[in-house]
Amino acid sequence: MTGQRWMDFAGQAIFHTLVAALVIEALIRLWGVRQPEQRTGFRLLALGWPLLVVPALFVAFPVREAEAFRDARAIFAGRHWDDLAFLGIGLYGWWIAFMGAAGLGLFLLDLVPWMRARGAQSPPWVARAPEARSAEEALARAAHALRMEAPPLAWVGSGPPILFCTGTRQPTVVISRAAVDLLDGDELTGALAHELAHLERRDPTLSWALMGARALMWFNPGVQVLVRAIARDGERIADERAGTACGDRLALASGLLKLYRATGGGVPASGVGRRPLTAALAEPIARARDHDIELRCRALLEEAPAPVPLARMRLAAVAAGLGFLLFFVV
Amino acid sequence: MTAARPMGSTVSEGARALWTLTLVLGGAALALVALDSMPTWLHGHPRGVRRAASIEEAERRVQSRVLLPSYFPDSLRWPPSQVRFVVDDGGSVALDFQGKDGAPALLLAQSLASGGAIPDGLQGRPAVIQRQSAPLGEDAVLARVVAEDGTLWNQLEWSRSGRRFLLRGRGSLEDLIRMARSIHGERR
């Protein structure tokens, strides 16, 4: 593929994602789609667009790249903006460069802390610790409530409160002594049920797939934002599943809040204020996380959201409508 | 146990959902059309007229060769100050040249397909005050036209191998005819 074709591909991937995401977010609000599973379904459609549909359009319909299609058939052609230039470069080129930089920035914003965390020395896990008995009992209760087999529990005897699930082939729940000490019995069962709900949905595998999608579409800010929204939906789905299975949504909300506060939630890490850029970024990120936790707790304090009817028909209609509209966007 | 939804309610729910979808997609389509027409509106060219950074880019985009005069008067600046093209009806290209003083001095427009006409969007519609046949073929026309700034320009129009050509300049008529002939490799 020539440089010009790569640029056209990148431009269309970015633009199609933006249009698809905006249309889908508008419909989620107008149709009142509140159930996180259904929201995820719609957002996955927008995420799949640049990954599957745009390459398919390039391969199956080369006629869309012809000048005649751009001028006579297309309802929007990004290259038309190249008629206006700044410093000898067309505005479409500038737009792709700006969006590419934004996409890369959003990708690195998550990739760098993740790589640092992987590089840092993790606390030692113990497979079968005698003092983990209360946690194992709570895990068994949570697994029973979710009607699934309890995965192995990894015990961390020291350090801050830790509770997460991991493993694509060998799912494991990791918990620390501090987390068990922090939460009461119902909160602990709820929090463990939340992690089991992630394992039940194979979220660790899904998170790798989403990271792969982000890496492939590093230049696409729409993809970066969509993946974050889908990850947030994943948390909400696990909350709902755990809250419904255990029957104590309040305990789960309380446990969630306690763990968030105990792990420094809402407070930017020390030292970030030394550099102006990181300080400027840390505050809004911390605020966004606060807001996210607040929304999750609020959702748990309310009744489980009802699904909108005819969800599959709506999804199919959106896919068909977007397919027709975006065919003429080049 | 959940109660079954009445059929009528499902149909009306589906119809409402489709209506909302139509409105959202229609709004998106309108916004895209508006966004697409903005560059044309901002640079003031008629719809369908595109700009290219160079003659080579225009040739690549219309997938055809642009014929250029081998005679080029010293009073004009090279390269063209503006390269415009349309792709409809086989495509046409217009090259605008400035004089050494920086003022508009020459327009060379040509259709790229046999039987194609040069659209008004490329050549404009200046007022013609005098017309006569020109020594460039049977359908060649020489005219005196009034340019946008009110000055009088000479204009030559002719066809060759089915393609239509137009030269409009504020220089001498002799230079214009010489350029026209040189486009087709004629020396005089």
What this model shows, in words?
- The complex is a heterodimer of chains A (330) and B (188).
- By secondary structure, chain A is mainly alpha-helical.
- Chain A has helices spanning 3-30, 36-60, 67-73, 91-119, 133-145, 177-182, 185-200, 203-216, 221-246, 249-262, 276-301, 311-327; strands at 85-86, 89-90, 153-156, 163-166, 172-176.
- In chain A, 67% of the residues lie in helices and 5% in strands.
- In chain A, the strands form 2 sheets. A 3-stranded mixed sheet of chain A has the order 3-5-4.
- In chain A, β1 and β2 (89-90) form a beta hairpin.
- The longest helix of chain A has 29 residues, at 91-119.
- Chain A is elongated and about 75 Å long.
- Chain A starts with a helix and ends with a helix.
- With 188 residues, chain B is α+β, with helices and mostly antiparallel strands.
- Chain B has 2 domains: 1-44; 50-183, 3-Layer(aba) Sandwich (Protein Transport Mog1p, Chain A).
- Helices cover 32% and strands 28% of the residues of chain B.
- Chain B is built from 4 helices and 8 strands.
- Chain B has helices spanning 7-43, 55-62, 120-123, 173-183; strands spanning 50-52, 82-86, 92-98, 104-111, 127-133, 141-146, 152-160, 163-169.
- In chain B, a hairpin with a 2-residue loop joins β7 and β8 (163-169).
- The model of chain B has no long low-confidence stretch (mean pLDDT 87).
- The interface between A and B is medium-sized, with 34 and 33 residues.
> Mean pLDDT of chain B, rounded to whole units?
87
In spatial order, strands of the major sheet of chain A run 3-5-4
Assembly annotation: heterodimer
Q: What summary fits the major beta sheet of chain B?
A: 8 strands, antiparallel
Shape estimate of chain A: elongated
Low-confidence spans of chain B: pLDDT under 50, at least 5 residues? none
Q: What is the strand content of chain A?
A: 5-15%
- Pair with the biggest interface: A-B, 34 and 33 residues
Named CATH architecture of the largest domain in chain B: 3-Layer(aba) Sandwich
Task: Report strand order across the widest sheet of chain B.
Answer: 1-2-3-4-8-7-6-5
Radius of gyration of chain B: 25 Å
With helices defined by DSSP (H or I, 4 residues minimum), what is the helix count of chain B? Answer: 4
* Number of self-contained structural domains of chain A: 1
Q: Kindly provide the radius of gyration of chain A, computed on alpha-carbon positions and rounded to a whole number of angstroms.
A: 23 Å
For the termini of chain B, the CA-CA separation is 96 Å
Helix content of chain A: 55-70%
H/E order of the elements of chain A? HHHEEHHEEEHHHHHHH
Strand element count of chain A: 5
Arithmetic mean pLDDT of chain A = 89
Q: What order do the helices and strands of chain B follow?
A: HEHEEEHEEEEH
| Count of extended strands of chain B | 8
